[in-house]
Amino acid sequence: MKKIFFMILLGAMVLPSMAQEFRVGATAGVNVNSPSGDDTGLIGFNVGVKGELGLLQASEGWFMDFSALLSSHGWKSVAYYDKATATSLQWKATPYYLSIPVHVGYKFRCSDKLKLFVSAGPYAGIGLFGKETLTSTLAGKSTTSTVSNNIFADNVHERFDWGLGCRLGAELYGHWQLSVGYDWGMKDINKKNMRYRTLSISSVYVF
User: Fold this and answer.
1) What is the topology classification, in CATH, of domain 21-76+96-126+159-206?
2) pLDDT > 70 in the chain, percent
3) Which of 44, 63, 73, 160 could form a disulfide with 31 if both were Cys (CB 3.0 to 4.6 A apart)?
4) Closest CA relative to residue 174, chosen from 206, 141, 136, 131
5) What is the pTM of this model?
């Protein structure tokens, strides 16, 4: 307990000396999921809040940002043909995570109204809820049934995920930020050894 208190106290003393400015904002965007393996990714979304801390390091361009996002990472499997039953089978999942990326980046000032930025860092994902279904097709007739109403509680998916990401974007008028990012999942999230690969397009308004 004393060690934790000391670390918090040290952080409270060090961060103000590094901080130039702290801002918060609202963010929303689209996820284009492309999981590793043969499965097909689905279009998802991300929405949440963002904090940005300016750093007084090599120059005023350095910053750190961190977000708390509700993020979806849907996928569907390649159709599997069961010869014994002459049935085509396809699984589909729509998992939702609390995603927490922490990046360090640099802003390049182009004018009073425009800055370009790049950032990179790790992220952690905590599975919140999600559903998995199975579609069976026999003689041209398809039937969809629910495999799991909560893929994390039922241990269909791993609840915790982590990886690395990067962002490239522009800041307009000191408030609007538009960015394109890519995240590489480092953990297998199901028994098929699937890892997330996610392209994101996001818009942020920083107050």
Assistant:
1) Porin (2.40.160)
2) 89
3) 44
4) 206
5) 0.84
